[in-house]
Structures are given as structure tokens and as C-alpha cells.
Backbone:
């Protein structure tokens, strides 16, 4: 194939993948017409040890001097060093692998004049293959690529493929009193831009093994002064974290409001409180407290309601319907063992108080303790017993009232037992005469009644020799006149004042003892008459 001659002081040429063929041999002759060496950069991706790129310097007598042989994948820059401004580039391939089959990209050549008087490379791009040191200020008007030939997709391109530990290493020392930035990025989204994202710093990390850090910061703080910090993946924070405040000894310190809401649900910001947890309306469990390998406790709301609840955690919210403890939002009623509390405290089950149960109230009826039995449904059956601490027209007393399902008025609504504050007791009545300790409205039956007098007066004094026993004639006359025994109340008196059991027992015993004395006296008279008859 004839050589291609390029008459220019700078330029480029290439073989791309579609032009990359088997058994190729092609030459390019560069004729700059200037008496300066040529600076030639190359970026090559070919079949190693099979396909070759040769770069020659040409002197003024057309002699060739090989300055670079490239095979496989490589990039760099070389100089012809001869002040002739001439070079030859040769590319040849074998017949073993087609470029399209092997996936090789071919090569690209850039060239320009090298001005050796002021060390300025007059070329379209600057390529430095070996290490470089810049002591001073440098400006790159175009794009800058390190480690590979620039492809035009970014202003600065650093390509570190199996070469160094650090792709980019920056060192900044601050010996003066001002701000120092290791990396300063300032990116603007133009006013004419209606869409698209703007990234001040973009890092993409990939790999199958080992740790992958999109950003690694050691020492100092990471501060976001304006805008938000957004993390879409998982995060591991091994130190203490402060949000709105300097981190303290706790793992997380928050100064301000802290909201939690699942994806797709907006937090409720219209309520007070430093911690706000928002979940969809059809939800239940908000907070789960779990001890390792044990059943969790859940704190939240009864599923699909606004009732605050505490109970055993379940697999999903829809099953959180039967917690142990409930507070109804509408009424403030508290339920233990029930989700429908009808009272300020509603317990479905047994309750135990080891010290005091205090019930506080006021008014004539005071406050009541109610005992219910739903099995009592008939008229006159006390489905509810109430214990009252009463005053006023009811008297200062503790009273037990019975109610059926009809209640007051028309149904069973009666005081069954009254305990007056002064110790008097009423059964079936709350009206107790002042001189009595027990008042019963109705009959009393007992197998045994013991009456013990608190004062002396048991009638054994009848048997004293100084006791004056009334003559029977006098007793006869009293009975005829008064229609009752002496010392015994009349029927009208009993009807009016009632009967004192202890006093009556005392009087009856007195009469029995007097009767005994009368019999003894009569027996003596009978015995004396018998003696007279025998004589």
C-alpha cells in the first residue's frame, strides 16, 4: 500500500475498530516543513505480540531512525529529536485475529512541533508518558488527561489502571491564618437548564471483592452547610453522630425535630414533639422492642385505628389487633385486655392491688364501687351491686345498693346494707334510731343469739337474803290493775318503743327467780300442812 503523506505542523490520524483488518500494512509520512523535532503521542489497543505500530524519525537524507515500537495496549508520547520536522508511522497486522473478532479498538496518533528554545510543545494536546514535575503555575486551556489519551468527555481525565496506589493524591499544608481546601469544587446549574442533575463531586466505585468506598475521610469533619445529605444505599457509621449538634458520648445526638416515615409516606409536620413517627393509615406497629431470639414488644396503634397500644409484636401490622394495653384517643379511656374500653380504666380479667385502692369523689352519693354480673337478667335480680360513701340526706354512711337491669325508677333500686359513720348498722333500712346500734327492716332468724351486757345487773340479786319479794296478793292486785307483771313493759310500750332483748332477758330471769322463791315458800307451807294432817 502506498504511504499517506501529511503536510502539516500538527494533526492526527487513526485506525478504528471497523478499519482494523487482518494482514494490514499501512504507512503515514509526516512532512511539517519546519526545522523542529516532532512530538508524537499515541494511544494503542491492538493484538499484543501480533500487530505492531512503528514510529521512525526521518533525517534530511531520507534515512529512517526507529524511535518507538508499540504492540498490545499502550499510550504515551515520544520525540523524533531530529530538527527535521519529519516522521514515518507504520502499522502492520498478521492474519491470526480480526479486529472485530478480538474487540481491539485500533490506535490514534497526534503530532505537533516541539520548540526546544522555550520548551513549549506546540501541539493540539499535551502527552506525558513518564513522571512529570511542575514547580510553579500551569494553565491548560483545553482538556487534560493523565494515564491515557483524552477522549473529550471531561476537562480532566485521570486513568490509573494497575499502575499506582493513588489515582489522585493531593497534599495541602496551611501555614497561614486562612481557609485551605484540599479539593474545592464549585459547580453551577445554568439558569437556562430545565432538567438534569449537577454534581460538585461524583464518585463511582465497582468491584466484586473487598471493601468499596465511594469516599473515605480520615480525620476532621464532613460538613454539609447548605443543601441536604442524601444516602440511597446502606451506611456504616462507626463513631458518634450529631445532627444539628456536636456529637457527644452517645452514638446519635439530635438537636431539633426527628421524623421517621416509610418510603412513599410524608411525615406529619403539623404536630409538636421532638420525635415524630408517621405510618400509613392502615398500620399498627410503630416501635418494636426485641430481645435477641425472643418475642418482641410493639408500641403503636391498633391496626387501622387511632388507639394507642402496647402488645406482643406480630409479623405484620394487620395482625396487631389484640394488644394488652390500649388508650382510646376519642375518650382517653384505658383498656387492659380489651380494645374497646368503656370506662376510664377497663380491665378484662383479674386485677390485684397489694397496697391501697383509692377511689375519690364528692357529693351526696359520693363515688361508687360497682360489681356487675351479666348473667343476672331478670327483674329483681341484682345485676349490679354498688357501694357508696354517702352523706347529706342519705346520712354519713357506707351503703350497699342493689340494681336490676331496669334500675331506678321502676326496677330494683334499694339500699340493702347501711354502715353509719358512728358504727350503727342498718339492714334493709338506712333509718337507725339514735339509741340503737342495729336496725333491721324485716325478720331475723338465727340458730343462736348471745347477748352480753356491758354493765352489771344480772338478776342473781333476787336470791340475796335482803331482797324484798313482793307478796303474791300484791302481785295479784297489780296484774288485775295493769294487765302485765310488775317490771315488765306493757304491749303498748313494746309497740311504741320496741323490745330490748338484753333487758327483757334480764327481767324475765328476774321473774323466773322470783317465781322460784314463791314455789319454795309454797312448798314449805305444803310440807307444814302435811305434818299437821299426820298428827
Residues:
Amino acid at each position: 500500500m502506498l504511504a499517506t503523506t501529511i503536510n502539516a505542523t500538527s494533526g492526527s490520524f487513526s485506525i478504528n475498530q471497523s478499519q482494523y483488518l487482518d494482514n494490514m500494512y499501512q504507512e503515514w509520512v509526516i512532512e511539517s516543513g519546519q526545522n523542529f523535532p516532532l512530538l508524537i503521542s499515541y494511544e494503542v489497543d491492538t493484538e499484543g505480540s501480533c500487530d505492531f505500530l512503528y514510529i521512525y524519525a526521518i533525517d534530511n537524507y531520507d534515512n529512517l531512525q526507529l524511535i518507538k515500537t508499540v504492540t498490545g495496549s499502550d499510550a504515551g508520547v515520544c520525540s523524533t529529536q531530529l530538527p527535521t520536522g519529519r516522521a514515518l508511522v507504520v502499522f502492520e497486522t498478521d492474519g491470526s485475529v480480526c479486529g472485530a473478532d478480538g474487540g481491539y479498538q485500533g490506535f490514534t496518533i497526534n503530532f505537533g512541533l516541539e520548540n526546544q528554545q522555550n520548551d513549549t510543545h506546540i501541539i493540539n494536546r499535551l502527552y506525558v508518558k513518564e513522571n512529570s514535575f511542575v514547580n510553579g503555575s500551569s494553565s491548560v486551556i483545553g482538556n487534560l488527561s493523565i494515564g491515557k489519551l483524552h477522549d473529550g468527555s471531561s476537562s480532566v481525565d485521570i486513568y490509573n489502571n494497575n499502575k499506582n496506589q493513588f489515582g489522585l493524591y493531593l497534599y495541602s499544608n496551611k501555614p497561614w491564618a486562612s481557609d485551605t481546601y484540599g479539593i474545592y469544587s464549585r459547580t453551577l446549574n445554568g439558569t437556562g437548564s430545565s432538567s438534569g442533575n449537577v454534581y460538585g463531586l461524583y464518585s463511582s466505585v465497582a468491584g466484586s471483592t473487598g471493601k468499596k468506598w465511594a469516599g473515605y475521610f480520615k480525620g476532621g469533619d464532613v460538613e454539609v452547610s447548605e443543601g441536604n445529605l442524601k444516602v440511597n444505599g446502606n451506611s456504616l457509621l462507626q463513631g458518634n453522630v450529631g445532627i444539628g449538634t456536636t456529637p457527644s458520648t452517645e452514638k446519635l445526638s439530635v438537636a431539633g425535630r426527628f421524623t421517621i416515615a416509610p418510603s412513599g409516606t410524608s411525615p406529619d409536620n403539623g404536630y409538636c414533639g421532638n420525635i415524630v413517627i408517621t405510618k400509613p393509615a392502615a398500620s399498627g406497629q410503630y416501635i418494636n422492642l426485641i430481645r435477641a431470639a425472643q418475642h418482641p414488644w410493639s408500641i403503636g396503634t391498633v391496626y387501622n385505628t387511632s388507639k394507642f397500644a402496647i402488645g406482643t409484636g406480630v409479623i405484620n401490622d394487620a395482625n396487631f389487633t389484640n394488644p394488652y394495653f390500649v388508650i382510646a384517643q376519642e375518650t382517653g379511656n384505658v383498656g387492659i385486655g380489651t380494645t374497646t374500653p368503656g370506662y376510664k380504666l377497663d380491665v378484662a380479667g383479674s386485677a390485684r392491688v397489694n397496697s391501697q385502692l383509692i377511689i375519690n369523689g364528692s357529693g351526696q352519693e359520693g363515688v361508687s364501687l360497682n360489681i356487675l354480673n351479666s348473667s343476672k337478667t331478670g327483674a329483681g335480680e341484682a345485676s349490679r351491686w354498688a357501694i357508696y360513701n354517702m352523706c347529706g340526706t342519705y346520712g354519713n354512711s357506707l351503703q350497699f345498693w342493689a340494681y336490676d337491669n331496669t334500675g331506678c325508677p321502676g326496677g330494683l333500686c334499694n339500699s340493702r346494707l347501711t354502715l353509719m359513720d358512728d358504727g350503727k348498722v342498718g339492714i334493709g333500712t338506712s333509718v337507725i334510731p339514735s339509741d340503737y346500734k342495729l336496725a333491721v327492716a324485716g325478720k331475723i332468724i338465727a340458730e343462736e343469739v348471745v347477748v352480753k351486757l356491758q354493765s352489771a345487773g344480772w338478776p342473781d340479786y333476787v336470791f340475796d337474803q335482803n331482797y324484798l319479794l313482793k307478796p303474791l296478793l300484791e302481785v295479784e292486785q297489780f296484774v288485775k290493775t295493769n294487765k302485765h307483771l310488775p317490771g315488765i313493759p306493757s304491749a303498748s310500750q313494746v309497740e311504741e318503743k320496741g323490745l330490748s332483748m338484753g333487758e327483757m332477758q334480764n327481767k324475765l330471769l328476774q321473774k323466773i327467780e322470783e317465781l322460784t322463791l314463791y314455789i319454795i315458800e309454797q312448798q314449805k307451807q305444803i310440807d307444814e300442812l302435811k305434818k299437821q294432817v299426820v298428827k
The CA atoms of residues 8 and 32 lie 5 Å apart. Residues 116-125 have pLDDT under 50 and may be disordered.
